Amino acid sequence: MKKIVLRVPDHQRRLALEMGAEVDPETGDLVVPEGEYVSDYKSWVAAYPYINIRAEHYWIFAAPCRCPGCGVDTKYYGYWVPEEHETEDDYEYDDDLDIEMPWRTVGADLRLTYVKYLTPSVLAEMTALTDGYFLDTEPDNHNPYNPAPGKPYYANHCHTCRRIITDEEMTHEVGPLGNRIEFYPVGEKFEANAGSHVSEGLFGLPPGND
Q1: What are phi and psi of 122, to 5 degrees?
Q2: Rounded Cα–Cα distance for residues 91 and 179 (Å)
Q3: pLDDT in tens, 125-138
């Protein structure tokens, strides 16, 4: 897995090590330890991607759907975080936001939409399941549900015609599918920049989230 290198000034090196940063034996660089939150080291991450949601574990789900383009049966994949997940700034989707916000627990499990950034380990879990989940831009830049029109996000694509299946098209389609949804639990830390979210608690999903 690709290591996330920290750009630490010499006078802060001791502090970074005390916080848990590790030394890469091959390069001598300080790196984020495997299994730790990148966001805890954000002051030293070059081009910090602005992570606004994190959790100690998560699920990947696969929901059956029909491609709006060619009409064949396919699957819609996504990420689901437990109720004890934490968030910053209430999911604002703003590249230019430079305000230090405290992490807070939301208290509801959420299905994430309009995901702009994923840490490498989280993305690797998804790409092991499907080759149709990758950064893309919606053809319609006037979608009122998209918090960042014209900017790419991790979107699903039909396995047959490769048409983008937008998050807006599936907003109200996932929860009612109930036990037809496949869940893949991942017992590792989750971090992302998510522009929006959907609470599916009324459907009793995902399983085992007690």
Answers
A1: -70, -45
A2: 28
A3: 999 999 999 999 88
Task: Round to whole Å and give the CA distance between 118 and 99.
Answer: 21
Q: In what order do the strands lie in the sheet with 22-23?
A: 5-6, 30-31, 22-23
Q: How far is the C-alpha of 35 from the C-alpha of 100, rounded, in Å?
A: 23
3-state SS string for 161-196: CCCEECCHHHCCCCHHHHHHCEEEEECCCEEEEEEE
CB atoms within 10 A of CB 163: 15
- Rounded Cα distance between 122 and 145, Å, is 24
Phi, psi angles (nearest 5°) of residue 180? -85, -10
Give residue 36's pLDDT.
84
Q: What is the pTM of this model?
A: 0.79
Residue in this structure with the two tokens 């490498």, named with its chain if needed: 120
Query: How do the domains of the chain map onto residue ranges?
Result: 5-44, 53-203
**Which amino acid, 79?**
Y
DSSP 10-40: GGGHHHHHHHT-EE-TTT--EEPPTTS-GGG
Report, in this order, helix, strand and coil percent for the chain, each rounded to 5: 20, 30, 50
Summarised one tens digit per residue, pLDDT across range 26-59 is: 999 898 888 888 888 888 887 677 888 999 999 9
